[in-house]
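Researcher: Please predict.
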Amino acid sequence: MSTLTDDTVRHYLSLPYGISLTRDGLDDERPWRATVGEIPGCEARGATPGDAAAKIPVALAEWVAIAQAEGREVPEPRPRSYSGKLLLRMSKSLHGELAQAAERDEVSLNAYVNLLLATALHGPALNGATPPRAAAVDEAADPVVPADNARLYRFLVLALAANVAVTAIVATIAVVLLVAA
């Protein structure tokens, strides 16, 4: 590749494209598919959601390089605007635990959940803010992540945490149902 093409590919890799993960089952060894919504045909497959998502930068780089070589335009990410409001449904027990933790830290539930989410996304060093006790993060245990992949890494950590939480809730419900039966 030429330097111009390399610079162009790097430019597009730095943009905030949306990635969708689906389990389609078309490939038994790699049932997870990651796609870039703005770029038709830009996709990667993997054995796990993280594996598929981790392959997107390579797929995007290849797609952009081919489009450039063929003189095609590369779509940029759609501008997104956010209201700052989020309706979130959760179990009553999780809601209770979060409310109790917020009371313990003497902050509102809204502020507590915001800080938890920001800590999960950006790590505990949030402009000098002290993360809530429930969101303690051991940065020494985190692997070293190249700067280009830091955003993807944060997304995957958050997705993994959500997956673990949902699995724990489902397991608890299953145990309760089995015991009640």
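Model: The radius of gyration is 20 Å.
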